[in-house]
Specification:
The complex is a heterodimer.
Chain A: H1 5-24, H2 31-35, E1 37-42, H3 61-67, E2 72-74, E3 80-82, E4 85-91, E5 96-101, H4 115-127, H5 132-135, E6 138-145, E7 148-153, H6 160-163, H7 174-178, H8 184-193, E8 201-207, E9 211-216, E10 229-234, H9 238-247, E11 252-254, H10 258-265, E12 270-285, H11 295-303, H12 307-314, E13 319-321, H13 343-352, E14 361-367, H14 375-389, E15 391-397, H15 400-408, E16 420-426, H16 436-440, H17 455-463, H18 467-483, E17 487-500, E18 503-504, E19 519-520
Parallel strand pairs in A: 1-10, 1-11, 14-15, 14-16
Antiparallel strand pairs in A: 2-3, 4-5, 5-7, 6-7, 8-9, 9-10, 11-17, 12-16, 12-17, 13-17, 18-19
Helix pairs in contact in A: 11-13, 17-18
Chain B: H1 2-31, H2 36-40, H3 47-57, H4 63-75, H5 89-124, H6 129-143, H7 146-160, H8 183-189, H9 193-229, H10 233-241, H11 245-274, H12 276-282, H13 288-297, H14 301-329
Helix pairs in contact in B: 1-14, 5-6, 5-9, 5-11, 5-14, 6-9, 7-9, 8-9, 9-11, 11-14, 12-13, 13-14
Classes of the chains: A alpha+beta, B mainly alpha.
Chain lengths: ~525, ~325
């Protein structure tokens, strides 16, 4: 058969292009090589490997937790344990603290970790603007020996130990850090290019906003992690994350769209895990809305919400209905306390307050859209439930920055927050100070409700030095504020995680995806 | 001399444009709700802590004083300190800009070359199924936004066919760019064929997504102008002289058709550069586009202001380049200040 030049060129061109594309495609690797690597399609991004300055949320800590160690560690029950700091003791009537530092720990550059590094890290944290509120309570730091750090506080903060195992509470090498430049700003920039920690992995390559390539640190004090190499791909778009896991380009991801979870879990080679995390979806009640001066109205709003249906039908199972600000695993969680779904009672309460079908309660509700799973859909469903009992809600979609701005406008200057607003409160410390405490204290800028009756219940959460009594007080306060309708807890957030079937990983309630806790079957 | 006056005039215009852009972005950021100090303060902060953060961020004081401080920074060649990252904003932008330039240039090349090639073949094969198909695709290309193309390409080539990578700039096993900031150039300079292949593979989908709307516009313009040119007297004369159709089309007619196409590209370039924001986010491409969305999330005023200024400079510079190219293509055009 005679082949024309045109046909020949066409065929070889297509064939050549196909071959080129196939060589560029992610190829199949030997099983042994594959098992030495885990690739994580991560839903957040970081642009700096300096673990101290920038504000972050708990899931974003995954990358820092792989490279650095915190002073304390947190387990899957949100409980704190010794880590680089093996033990901590209150001293001087809880106006001081003594920390014992683990010996024999190496940084990635081979240098020894000592109390000086722990002290330096705490000192740096109290100077960094964002965390000064917490670490700034430390007015003096002493290092009597290589294994001991003594802190003196300006004022008592019962939650301080938790901050040693939370967010930016990481240890950096003092000598190496100080060698990097003239001031903290220049050092921070240089540190990002060549970060050194004491964690289970060391950094091989970091492209800000894109990828973080890690290699196991063989001299890690807990032993080298099971998987030798870990790659974080920062993929913020949920469709792209789904494509990553389906294509095999990544081995694990989280925060896939909830409606995709069942389909992805059923794919050959993949499995899904529903991971309850420490975030709570709540409706914040504004005290500046006149109808909310009546307790019946506030309680009617809450009684009308069928949380079980919302979790099943709207969230597709990605939530745990809750009646309290203190989620499961929080120290002040009270599993015996429930707030009933009772639309009949809601109607009665509204009638008592003077509302009827002819004269319904009208209120505005602010919500985000697409910031958290099904946020707008949840509020839309609740609005429908309210309509059934005689409440007409007008929804307004806002952004998170707008929410903060409106909530801070308490004096009438500028637009204030709506009578109700949806917010996802995160408290991975589990301490009630960081939940009902700051939600209800009249002294803080993050308060939800403002009334004097709450003060005697909330003050012990901040000031009581007997921990058992403090937690008991927090439980009472958490129950009280819901019984009075000062806040409407909705559900605990459940995080969808998809991973390869052969990958062993039990997720954390903080939402982190940490390669050192992963292994291949 | 005329060219020098032209360039000087454009520089003055550029300066005034940048000043206007700086005032606009400054004003808009302060007008929209969102206090960065409130956003970033951890839950244990008091009002005094937040006020201190505001002072450190330079967010207190009258707006004209804040704007003056911002302009002062600008004239000294920096954008201030990123509130969110706590790093120099110019350093952050400079580290991410090469990735955006790489993507934008690749998309531009793809759009112009692809649009011209398709337009040529479509006219050459006019009154055939190929012409109908390309015209339909051209309409589709212009109708669908680039971020939708991005998602379609990810699903098709990443999830379904599994032949191309869908995130990042280079496979993790290759060295991160350190020489020039451009992964492509670094791979060439290192003579690393594997890295080069990886960079090209990672670049293909995002560049295609970004390029498609402009490619479709170029295709339609080139096609329309070629069809018009083919009816011109000089083309009839060329045919009568016996010149091959391919030469008439690919050389004589195309040269004239490039002039309006250059104008089109100049106008559309701004949209292409702006399109990097969403495309970079979808493909996890570490450029200033991706950085923009994150900076807005945190109301990082210095970083947003810096990025807007950089984008304005890119658009102004690209428009100037197009004007100069236009003068080269069309000798009858005089450059006036």
């Amino acid at each position: 058969m005679q082949v024309s030049r045109r046909t020949f060129l066409r065929t070889t061109g297509v064939g050549g292009l196909g071959a080129a594309v196939m060589t560029l495609a992610p190829g199949r690797e030997a099983t042994a090589q594959r098992r030495a690597l885990v690739t994580i399609a991560f839903p957040e991004t970081i642009t700096s490997m300096d673990p101290h300055p920038a504000p972050r949320n708990s899931p974003r800590e995954s990358m820092f937790e792989a490279v650095f160690d915190r002073f304390l560690a947190q387990d899957r029950q949100l409980k704190y344990h010794g880590h680089l700091v093996t033990s901590w003791q209150w001293t001087d009537g809880k106006m001081g603290m003594e920390l014992k530092v683990r010996q024999g720990v190496k940084f990635h550059d081979g240098s020894d970790l000592t109390a000086e590094d722990v002290a330096f890290s705490i000192d740096r944290l109290r100077q960094v603007s964002i965390y000064r509120a917490t670490y700034g309570k430390v007015k003096e730091i002493k290092v009597p020996d290589r294994a001991t750090v003594q802190l003196v506080f300006e004022r008592f903060d019962p939650s301080f130990p938790r901050w040693l195992g939370f967010l930016a509470g990481f240890v950096v090498p003092k000598a190496y850090f100080l060698s990097l430049g003239g001031d903290d700003k220049s050092r921070s920039g240089e540190f990002t290019k060549k970060p050194v920690g004491s964690g289970p992995y060391r950094v091989v390559a970091f492209t800000p906003g894109s990828t973080l390539v890690l290699e196991a640190f063989d001299r890690y004090w807990k032993g080298a992690p099971p998987i030798r190499r870990a790659v974080f791909k920062m993929v913020t778009d949920p469709t792209a994350r789904v494509a990553e896991i389906l294509s095999g380009g990544s081995d694990i991801t989280a925060e896939v769209p909830v409606e995709e979870f069942t389909r992805l879990s059923a794919q050959a080679g993949l499995k899904g895990v529903k991971n309850p995390i420490a975030d709570m979806a709540e409706l914040f009640v504004s005290p500046r809305f006149d109808p909310f001066k009546k307790e019946e109205v506030r309680l009617a709003v809450h009684h009308a919400i069928d949380k079980k249906t919302i979790v099943e039908k709207v969230l597709l199972g990605f939530g745990n209905p809750t009646s309290t600000t203190e989620g499961p695993l929080y120290d002040a969680y009270d599993p015996t306390f429930t707030f009933a779904y009772d639309p009949k009672k809601a109607r009665q309460l509204l009638q008592k307050a003077g509302y009827s079908a002819a004269s319904p309660l009208k209120l505005g509700v602010m919500t985000t859209r697409g910031v958290r799973a099904k946020d707008f859909e949840v509020v839309t469903a609740i609005a429908q439930m309210w309509k059934d009992v005689g409440i007409e809600a007008e929804l307004e979609v806002i952004t998170i920055p707008q929410w903060f701005q409106y909530r801070s406008n308490r004096t009438g200057q500028g637009k204030g927050i709506a009578p109700l607003s949806l917010y996802f409160w995160s408290n991975a410390t589990g301490d009630p100070i960081n939940a009902v405490g700051f939600q209800m204290t009249p002294k803080g800028p993050f308060r939800v409700w403002e009334s004097e009756d709450v003060v005697p219940l909330i003050d012990p959460v901040f000031e009581e030095r007997d921990e058992a009594k403090r937690i008991a007080a927090a439980k009472r306060a958490a129950r009280y504020v819901v019984e009075k309708g000062y806040i409407v807890p909705l559900y605990q957030v459940v995080q969808p995680v998809i991973m390869k079937k052969e990958l062993n990983f039990q997720p954390f309630p903080t939402g982190v995806l940490v390669p050192q806790e992963m292994s291949w079957a | 001399m005329a060219r020098a006056r032209f360039l000087l005039g454009r520089l003055v215009l550029a300066f005034l444009s940048l000043l206007g852009a700086s005032l606009l972005v400054f004003g808009v950021l302060r007008a929209v709700p969102g206090d960065p100090a409130l956003l970033m303060a951890p839950v244990g902060s008091s009002m005094e802590d937040i006020e201190r953060v505001r002072r450190e961020f330079g967010l207190t004081g009258p707006w004209w004083a804040q704007y003056g401080a911002f302009l002062g920074d600008l004239f000294r060649g920096h954008f201030g300190r990123s509130l969110w990252l706590q790093q120099d904003a110019l350093d952050v932008i400079a580290s991410r800009l090469p990735a955006t330039l790489e993507l934008a240039l690749a998309a531009l090349l793809l759009a112009v070359a692809g649009g011209i090639a398709l337009g040529l073949v479509s006219v050459w094969r006019r009154r055939s199924w190929f012409e109908s198909a390309t015209v339909s695709l051209g309409t589709l290309g212009m109708a669908v936004p680039n971020f939708i193309w991005g998602l379609l390409l990810i699903v098709t080539f990443g999830a379904f066919l599994r032949v191309l990578p869908i995130s990042g700039r280079i496979a993790p096993e290759y060295e991160a760019p350190e020489l020039t900031g451009s992964a492509l150039v670094d791979a060439v300079l290192r003579a690393d064929a594997g890295a080069l292949a990886s960079v090209l593979a990672h670049l293909l989908l995002p560049a295609t997504a970004l390029a498609l709307p402009l490619l479709a516009a170029v295709f339609r313009t080139i096609r329309s102008d070629l069809l018009t040119a083919l009816r011109e007297d000089y083309v009839v004369t060329e045919r009568m002289k016996g010149l091959p159709e391919a030469q008439i089309l690919g050389w004589r007619a195309l040269k004239n058709a490039l002039i309006p196409t250059t104008t089109l590209v100049g106008v559309q370039l701004g949209f292409l550069i702006g399109g990097t924001v969403l495309v970079e986010t979808i493909f996890a491409w570490p450029g200033i586009g991706q950085l923009t969305l994150q900076a807005f999330q945190y109301r990082d005023f210095p970083l947003i202001q810096g990025i807007v200024i950089v984008y304005a400079v890119l658009v102004i510079a690209s428009n100037l380049a197009v004007d100069l190219l236009y003068a080269v293509l069309n000798p009858r055009v005089r450059l006036h200040a």
